[in-house]
Structure formats: C-alpha cells, structure tokens
Write a structure and sequence with these properties.
The chain has about 220 residues and is mainly alpha-helical. The chain is built from nine helices and four strands; from the N terminus they run ααααααααβββαβ.
Amino acid sequence: MSSGVVAWVLTVALASASFAQEAPPPTYTPPQLDNLVKRIALYPDPLLAQILTASTYGDQIPDAAAWADQHHYLTGQALADAIQQDQLPWDPSVQALLPFPSVLGMMASDMAWTNDLGNAVLAERDAVIDAVQRERHLAYQYGYLRTNGQIVVSSGPYIYITIAPVNPAFIVVPAYNPAVVFVAPRPGFFVGAAIGFGFGVTIGAFFHPWGWGATTV
C-alpha cells in the first residue's frame, strides 16, 4: 500500500468517527494528546485507524473484548463466520478489532484511557493525528522506528510519517515501551530491539465486511 493510500485510509476512518457520534468540546492540550497516543502511535496505520474509530464506541469495547477472548482460538474464515453467525451489535470498527484480542483487551483493561482517546478523536481528530506524528517523529529521530521485514516506514524531517505493513494482508501488532522509544537512547543501547514485531494477524477478504477491504488492497 502506498503512503498516500495509508494516509487516506486513516483520514477517512477518523472522518467517519466524527459523524458517528456527537463530539464533545476540545479539552486536551498537545502534551496531553501526546501522552494519550503513545501506546498506539507506532501501530501500522490500518490498525491504528480502526483503533481510533473504535475508541469512539467505548461502551462497546468491554463486551467485544470478552467475545474476542472467548473466541481467541478462531482465526481467518472461521472467525469471520463466527462474527457473522452471532450477528454482533457493535460498530464495524469495533468488530474489525475482533481478530486482535490483545488490542481489545488492552482497550478494555483501561477504559479511562479508551474513553479519553475516543473523546479526543471526536472533538479534535486533526490534533490527535498531529500527536501521533509528533511521537512517530521522535521514535524515528532516535532510531527506533525503521522499515524492517514487517513494516514499511516513510519518513523525513517535515513529512507525514506512515507505517504500512509489508504484506497488506498481514497486520503486525508492535510491542514497545513508550518510556523507551520516545526518548533518546542511552549510550550503547541497541535501538533495534526496542520494538518487537512477533505477533501478527492475517486479514483476508473474509474481513472486508468490517472495514478491512480498504486496508488490504
């Protein structure tokens, strides 16, 4: 996927969220937004877009996380069939995260954060994206965020940094410590080990009904 397409996907997803629910008034400062997005800022753009939109449906997250945990043994077509058969009532962005039980679990385990993120997306989505970009630029500046076997990073001092999966149908969930990757490394620290890419999910055509069609072409 080109960086332009990834950026478009993210923008469209957030625009959809802004129409989905009534936006509260802006209440977040840039440093507060930076802190809010740290734990997801380095996620691949297709996954980040789904998370940001799903966060605006915070009341649905706990039930979705429980369903995903109960069906964690299902993948691919079998999971898609189970979602269809259960006729789940949640927003497509929330259902789009069902293949990622760890992500839903993270969101459900900290509902204060999830609701704050959702409110920020609804009230000032452009500022949320700006915060993501600030954090990505820091991670890139310090050498942590780089293209590798799982992601393609488009980067530069004044451009919009995108993170795209190498294989658009395989979305990797990075593991990292925000207290590490957004600050200058100490002397001798191996920056290449700061972000792990051990867990990924195959997102095929069977997940198109939940918004993955635009992110897997």
